[in-house]
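User: quick one, fold this
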Amino acid sequence: MTKTPNFELDSTVLTRIADALERLAPQPPAGPDFASADAFVWQPTGRRLIPVKRVNRVDMSLLKGIDRMRDILVENTERFARSLPANNALLWGARGMGKSSLVKAAHASINAQLGARAGLLKLIEIHREDIESLPDLMALVRGVPYRFIVFCDDLSFDAEDTSYKSLKAVLEGGIEGRPENVILYATSNRRHLMARDMIENERSTAINPGESVEEKVSLSDRFGLWLGFHRCSQDEFLAMVFAYVGHFKIPAEADMVRREALEWATTRGSRSGRVAWQYVQDLAGRMGVALG
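Assistant:
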């Protein structure tokens, strides 16, 4: 007589199997430790925020020739940090005039003003190529007891690029909308975030030229605050140079600095804060002064 096999397993075996399966299963990622730093870099792979212990920034007092833009952005950032209404901001215009430096300096300045609340305002940098992952980032920070400046440097879009739609949804659209504890700051060399020749090309080939570029151009309209940065004058350029020289206590004669700085700008065909900083780095190296 054939014996019927016993398929019943005791509770100990079942527990061991369950434990083994749990060990094999991937662990859910831990939530970000927002208290660990004031600035983070967003990495969409794994939905991670990487803490930045030391932010590469310039002191607010060294940003010359952009006083009006500085005051407007700092005031807007302060209102946001105090949970008052504030606008998303687009900083556009000439290269090297301190757009991204101003965003980072404003963040540091407001945190310094907050006193006992210092550290509640966080800066998150998102790279241009990761814009499509913005909804994931918004979901991660929504409802967190901190306030976040989400910052994208050198933002622009090419003709076939559709990732701008994710940015549009976060800026103003979608069912949930932008989290109330998030504001977006972006810098760009283009006022409308797309090249002029792209705009003209679409206008010339479209059935309705007025509507052909409206979708992309309207993206910049969703930034409530536009701050334009223009090429600096010779006096403003020299003011930038001498501000750096004084701040880092570089022992150089004023006449020599003026002559060399103007020659430096001439050889590069440009006057800007970036060019001023590049000259000061060269000068400090020759003078044996460390820029720390």
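User: anything notable?
Assistant: The chain is about 45% helix and 15% strand.
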